[in-house]
Design a protein that fits this description.
With 369 residues, the chain is mainly alpha-helical. Helices cover 64% and strands 2% of the residues. It is globular and about 65 Å long.
Amino acid sequence: MLTPVRHGVPQRAHIARYLALLLFVVIVFASLYPFTGWSYSGRPLLEFLFYPLPYYFRLFDNLANLVVYIPYGFGLALSFRPRWLGWITALLLSALTSFTMEFIQQFLPERVASNLDMLYNVAGAFIGATLAVSPLFRHAWHHLWRWRQRYFVANEPADYALALMALWFLTQLNPSIPLFGVVVMPLGLPQPFISPLDNPALFLFLLEAGGVMLHLTATLLFVTSFLSKRRYIARSVTTVVVLAVFLKMLAAGMLLKPFAFFEWINSNVLAGLGAGFLLVWLLTRFGRGVQLVVALLALLATQLISALWPLSANELDMLTLFRWGYGHLANMNALVEFLSRLWPLAAALCLIGALWNVRHMPSLQAKPK
């Protein structure tokens, strides 16, 4: 897939490749969490390949093994040319990834190496890779590529940014975390803490609302700074916010008990959202370089707020909000937390790369028209 760029130099778009790389990181974490208790049982290392089927069958785990490898196989297949090579390479790399994860799981007492997991993984990769090379989905991908060309600047950091935004939406799947929240107000009895302000409640409000404001600002400017034209700002901001709210509501409906459905929103969050929207409205009046710098500073500030937050959530108290079992819920929440920690670092690298482009390509410094 070729992407025309300035100066007439064609360049391959890397969205699918970045997406596959990010999914690989997700797969490694989900497969090896919690990364503790490493030991060797003494059993033959390849024994799990020959277990009688079905072995350790759990419907949720098997569906998760299938679903997560569908976009992974899809992204890998689109990362290589020609089509047949992409399809074969996607299956081989997916099978190698799955085998490696299952092999390593033998050394984790809380995980079970399973040939059935491998079969579901490869089946998911097969579906994804086949969709990627099929005429119908290649046609749809071509439309997606044209949408990317229309709305976003033609450089490699923009491809990276789009893949990262897909990852960011995954960080919104824990409905107990406030919308655009950086910190979480814990349940249970009040916790003692040292406040630098005479009014401790005001201190907590400033941190929670300020974190929401900075997270919203960083995320929206992360998107708007890569847009090709100013007239796309309003619809892009609206799309990101509406999708984030939809995912929170969907996750709340699926995971939370009815009384806790609106756990992800409160007055402090609303105050932070209002301030953040005003800040984004003002900052999008400036050029791309200013938006990139402010987005980077806002990302760094969210990490500072997270470090300053003096309260800690009790995991058992938080579990009372959910209707899921502890095991799957703990794994999902751990994955979301991992992605929430990974995303600011990955986004910061993307913003730094974009600033480098702006510095060396004067045509990118101007405001989007």
